[in-house]
From TrEMBL:
PANTHER family found in the cross-reference section: 3-OCTAPRENYL-4-HYDROXYBENZOATE CARBOXY-LYASE-RELATED, FERULIC ACID DECARBOXYLASE 1
Sample GO molecular function, one term: 4-hydroxy-3-polyprenylbenzoate decarboxylase activity
Protein name: 3-octaprenyl-4-hydroxybenzoate carboxy-lyase
Pfam families with a match to the protein in the record: UbiD, UbiD_C, UbiD_N
Any one Gene Ontology cellular component term annotated for this protein: cytosol
SUPFAM superfamilies (UniProt xref): FMN-binding split barrel, UbiD C-terminal domain-like
Length: 489
């Protein structure tokens, strides 16, 4: 791997290539190279989890496989900002700008695309790629960091999203498709009695990975958002066996079709709420080809750990902030708490101007995304990225009899085990789709009154505390003689 990535960091430019980003992490002590031969079943995920948020993990020859595996290279919020070339405080605005001003991609010839340097027209997926089994009760190996790219059968516009993919046969893979854009494309193809052409891109750069999780309108191509994050059009290439365009500089591409009416059992699988989802009948990808770079690197995400949670939370935060600020320009910041698995618990910073306003903000937040289960609104003197400060606001500014909002029977996340997804009929079958994910929503107004007496709600602070330079104030050479109380050097 080249170490020229350091120039990206020095200039503040975004990292356009996975290998340059990994080299930069290695140069800065944030990439751990694990011993060769680590087992793909459980052990690889166990080591990556122990390193989560501290170092990315690079596994050469896992289980003797020729292709190395990397995990955890986006496991800190600060790292993601650094990869884009902005500060953490600028991260949401930069992502929001990219989502609002996408750049059309640039198609290159197939013979110039690194991801098609090697082409496999046949062969078992697990023989070609080192696919780990992550959690204790997972039903076998899963692709967890694959960008699933598909074209709208009507318009030809593309969609990019991440889905868990169970590799249970040589050339067949079961995929979980939630009722979002990929599902709409599939149902349209199914109505036409046609397969849906797809590609699974593995080993993309951090910015393209992040862009794949944007909450964008139907027929908005997330690869164009990736281009805007990069500051230049993303290079794409047409697949060898279908018309899908994929990131030309990614490591690996699996080309295939989601077959109409073809279902197979999938699951259980350890999901982002840190629980297992049920075994159910799922759609199937029939694999037509695998292409990759020479000496490719396979990326896996350990489910429910920081890389997984941050990829889900940061794009949602940017979308939620934009949504709330359209009606409430005095909303200053938002944060999807990691304790709420980066999806369910939203903290909102508000410069309150009217009593009752936080309750309106709470209702608007629930309408913004059905996953949100709890909203806490705090004042502008509370840092929403610090859970301890949010808890302090709830402890001192919230009273349940006047500040609590509860909405029963709303649509929530089907992966939240406390909803009806865990409810069984008498015959042992799971609840039908239209009854899954039914959830209560809770909002907490943890703001102080707009007008209050003297300093009763004024946050205690010491003048000058934010300006203290401890390096200048502390005498590191001094030693106290506790017999006399004197100081010597």
């Amino acid at each position: 791997m080249s170490t020229s990535a350091s120039s990206n960091s020095a200039s503040g430019a975004p990292f356009r290539d996975l290998r340059h980003w990994l080299a930069h992490l290695a140069d800065t002590g944030r990439l751990a190279v694990v011993r060769e031969g680590v087992p793909l079943k459980h052990r690889l995920a166990a080591i990556a989890k122990r390193l989560d948020g501290k170092q990315a993990a690079y596994f050469p020859k896992p289980d003797g496989h020729a292709v190395p595996v990397v995990s955890g290279f986006m496991a800190r919020r600060a790292w993601i900002a650094e990869a884009i070339g902005v500060s953490e405080s600028q991260l949401l605005q930069r992502f929001r700008d990219a989502a609002e001003h996408p750049l059309p991609w640039q198609e290159i010839p197939q013979d110039q695309a690194p991801c098609q340097q090697v082409v496999h027209r046949e062969g078992a997926v697990r023989d070609i790629l080192p696919i780990p089994t992550h959690s204790e009760h997972d039903n076998g190996p899963y692709i967890t960091a694959g960008l699933v790219i598909a074209r709208n059968p009507v318009t030809g516009a593309q969609n990019v999203s991440i889905h868990r993919i169970q590799v249970h046969a040589p050339t067949r893979m079961a995929i979980l498709i939630l009722p979002r854009h990929l599902w709409a494309f599939y149902k349209e193809a199914e109505a036409r009695k046609q397969p849906l052409e797809v590609a699974v891109a593995i080993g993309v750069d951090p910015l393209t990975m992040l862009a794949s999780q944007a909450i964008a309108p139907l027929d908005s191509d997330e690869m164009e958002i990736a281009g805007a994050l990069h500051g230049a059009p993303l290079r794409v290439v047409k697949c060898r066996t279908n018309d899908v365009r994929v990131p030309a500089d990614c490591e690996i591409v699996i080309e295939g079709r989601i077959m109409p009416g073809d279902l197979e059992p999938e699951g259980p699988f350890g999901e982002f709420p840190k629980y297992y989802s049920a075994r159910e009948q799922r759609e199937v990808i029939s694999v037509d080809a695998i292409t990759h770079r020479r000496d490719p690197i396979y990326h896996t995400i350990v489910p429910a750990e920081m890389e997984h949670l941050l990829l889900g939370s940061i794009p949602r935060e940017a979308t939620l902030l934009a949504h709330l600020q359209r009606s409430f320009p005095n909303v200053l910041d938002v944060h999807l708490a990691i304790g709420g698995v980066g999806r369910y618990h939203l903290y909102v910073k508000l410069r309150k101007t009217h009593e009752g306003q936080p309750k309106n903000v709470i209702c608007a937040a629930f309408g913004a995304h059905y996953d949100i289960k709890q909203v806490i609104v705090v004042d502008d003197d509370v840092e929403v990225h610090d859970p301890q400060q949010v808890e302090w606001a709830v402890a001192t500014r919230f009273q349940a009899d006047r500040d609590l909002v509860v909405i029963p029977g709303a649509q929530g996340s089907v992966l939240d085990p406390s909803t009806t997804v865990g409810w069984n009929h008498a015959d042992g079958e799971t609840a039908p789709a239209h009854q899954q994910g039914i959830s209560a929503k809770m909002g907490l107004d943890a703001t102080r009154p707009v007008v209050y007496h003297e300093h009763v709600f004024t946050k205690v602070r010491v003048p000058g505390e934010d300006d203290v330079d401890l390096a200048a104030e502390i005498d590191t050479a001094a030693r106290v003689d506790f017999a006399t109380g004197g100081v010597r050097r």
